[in-house]
Amino acid sequence: MLYRIGADAVLMLHLGFILFVLLGGLLVAWKRGFLLLHLPAMAWGIFVELSGRPCPLTHWENLLRRLAGNAGYEAGFVEHYLLPLIYPAWLSVPVQYLLAAVVVVVNLLIYGGLLWRNRHRQAAAR
């Protein structure tokens, strides 16, 4: 039971990390301190997608699921709604490259918007 709860917690953490990698620039817009967390997270996410390496969170979740007797995948909210988001059946190497490109483009747009906003604020202050 504890291993299953742990595996579900790692799965939720994994989803949160994926969302942070993709949209963490919005947190940077709110609080600049997130920049020091977001840039390495984004770099890691892009590296994992382009290299084909599995994320350590995937390893830890699978280990916990095996220790739980591989129970839990057949029922429950986490398995039904979140597993397909993180591990879709159509995921392939070309799709991983596309996902890495999406991360780069989304974050370039967010950070470009932040730079543009800061420059216009500085110009207005002069």
Explain what you see.
The protein is elongated and about 65 Å long. 14% of the residues are buried. α1 packs parallel to α5. The chain has one domain (2-125). The protein is mainly α and 126 residues long. It has five helices and no strands.
Question: Which features does this protein show?
Answer:
elongated, 126 residues, single chain, mainly alpha, 5 helices
SSE map:
Layout: H1 2-30, H2 35-51, H3 56-67, H4 77-86, H5 93-125
Query: How many helices?
Result: 5
Number of strands: 0
Structural class: mainly alpha
The ordered H/E elements are: HHHHH
Beta-strand portion reads under 5%
Name the helicity range: over 70%
Distance between the termini: 62 Å
What is the total number of structural domains? 1
Mean pLDDT: 87
Q: Which residue ranges are poorly predicted, with pLDDT under 50 across at least 5 consecutive positions?
A: none
For the largest beta-sheet, the strand count, sense and barrel status come to: none
Identify the overall geometry.
elongated
Radius of gyration: 18 Å
Concise structural overview:
By secondary structure, the protein is mostly helical. The protein is built from 5 helices and no strands.
